[in-house]
């Protein structure tokens, strides 16, 4: 079976900032922030008695003209709803249908059916295809079923696009303690990366709660990038810059990618699957990675221009 084209390969998701939908001041700040994506949170950061008010805040926010609501410099907009079994999820999902963000983020996904139920509801409501589904993988069953859940992304009509790991819930459920290096969590994190890689989705690494500890964030972003995550979920604006740096291509990686693209574009490489690049074997599979990296750097440049226009 051929691997589907990654649906998200053209999206920048280095820094994915969670903004409590109840916090109007934080909502106002979004346009000035250089994150790639925003998760408007209706779930854990909003108290039960404030859910309705939080939904109203989002209605107002999305009704605003750009750059505040609709387009904020090309940032991807995701609304995290409460689970459908919580008593709040159905109203949240109606809001999503009304606002048509780029994606709806489903919390505490245990199995493929959790995704398909929402996918079916969106189809029934004739939601645009551009409205994707993201899934929080943050329960023991979610980790165990990560591959099956990712496979649901291949089901006809499925809108599944991206996983976000939630280590707060996972630690709560399993008793694994927060530790530098996340030693005992690494096998589970890699299971998520493997699952998304098999089915052409993206995976976003978990939040770091200690938002003042830049050293810890630096280490965790480097680790997440090395593991294969495309970005990090964040809770505070001060975390954006480090995430953008780690999950964007650095200068050396970009120079190498451009050299690979140039090597294969050379007429001498016509019909070759392997070339010698300064004493190193480079294959066409590296060309695909290189082209993605170059494309990503172009998207980053476009986003920076759009962001500068927004704040000036
Ligand atoms: C963690 C916070 C409660 C800290 O807030 P605060 O004390 O207000 O921080 P600061 O005074 O340092 O804020 C400085 C300014 O920045 C704005 N701000 C702060 N956070 C955000 C934000 N997330 N988005 C936008 N703007 C933000 C403040 O308004 C200040 O602005 P100004 O007044 O102009 O100076 C707070 O950061 C926060 O609430 N963060 C998000 C929490 C959240 O979304 N939680 C849910 C996601 S975590 C998760 O999902 C876990 C997962 O499910 C799992 O299981 O692991
Ligand atoms: Mg959680």
From TrEMBL:
InterPro entries in the cross-refs: Aldolase/citrate-lyase_domain, Citramalyl-CoA_lyase, Citrate_lyase_beta/mcl1/mcl2, Pyrv/PenolPyrv_kinase-like_dom, Pyrv_kinase-like_dom_sf
Pfam families, per database record: HpcH_HpaI
Biological-process GO terms, alphabetical: regulation of cobalamin metabolic process
SUPFAM superfamilies assigned: Phosphoenolpyruvate/pyruvate domain
Record carries keyword Transmembrane helix: no
Keywords: Lyase, Magnesium, Metal-binding
Residues in the signal sequence: none
Record-annotated HpcH/HpaI aldolase/citrate lyase domain positions: 14-237
A GO molecular-function descriptor: metal ion binding
Cofactor: Mg(2+)
Binding site for Mg(2+): 138, 169
Binding site for substrate: 80, 138
Domain of life from the UniProt record: Bacteria
Alphabetized PANTHER family for the sequence: CITRAMALYL-COA LYASE, MITOCHONDRIAL, CITRATE LYASE SUBUNIT BETA-RELATED
UniProt family annotation: Belongs to the HpcH/HpaI aldolase family.
Entry protein name: CoA ester lyase
Organismal lineage: Bacteria, Pseudomonadati, Pseudomonadota, Alphaproteobacteria, Hyphomicrobiales
């Amino acid at each position: 079976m051929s691997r589907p084209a990654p649906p998200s390969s053209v999206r920048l998701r280095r820094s994915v900032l969670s903004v409590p939908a109840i916090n109007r001041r934080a909502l106002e700040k979004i346009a000035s922030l250089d994150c790639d994506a925003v998760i408007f949170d209706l779930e854990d950061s909003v108290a039960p008695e404030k859910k309705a008010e939080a939904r109203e805040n989002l209605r107002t926010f999305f009704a605003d003209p750009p750059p505040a609501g609709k387009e904020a410099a090309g940032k991807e907009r995701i609304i995290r709803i409460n689970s459908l079994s919580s008593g709040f999820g159905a109203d949240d999902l109606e809001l999503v249908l009304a606002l048509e963000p780029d994606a709806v983020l489903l919390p505490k996904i245990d199995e493929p059916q959790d995704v398909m139920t929402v996918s079916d509801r969106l189809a029934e409501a004739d939601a645009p295809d551009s409205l994707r589904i993201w899934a929080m993988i943050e329960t023991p069953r979610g980790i165990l079923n990560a591959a099956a859940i990712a496979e649901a992304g291949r089901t006809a009509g499925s809108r599944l696009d991206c996983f976000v790991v939630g280590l707060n819930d996972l630690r709560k459920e399993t008793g694994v303690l927060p530790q530098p290096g996340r030693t005992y969590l690494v096998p589970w994190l890699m299971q998520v990366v493997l699952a998304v890689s098999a089915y052409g989705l993206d995976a976003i690494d978990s939040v770091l709660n200690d938002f003042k500890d830049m050293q810890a964030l630096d280490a965790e972003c480097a680790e997440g990038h090395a593991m294969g995550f495309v970005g990090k979920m964040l809770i505070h604006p001060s975390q954006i810059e480090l995430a953008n740096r780690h999950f964007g291509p650095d200068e050396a990686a970009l120079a190498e990618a451009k050299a690979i693209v140039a090597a294969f574009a050379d007429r001498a490489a016509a019909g070759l699957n392997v070339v010698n690049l300064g004493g190193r074997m480079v294959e066409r599979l590296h060309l695909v990675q290189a082209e993605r990296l170059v494309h990503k750097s172009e998207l980053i440049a476009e986003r920076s221009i759009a962001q500068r226009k927004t704040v000036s």
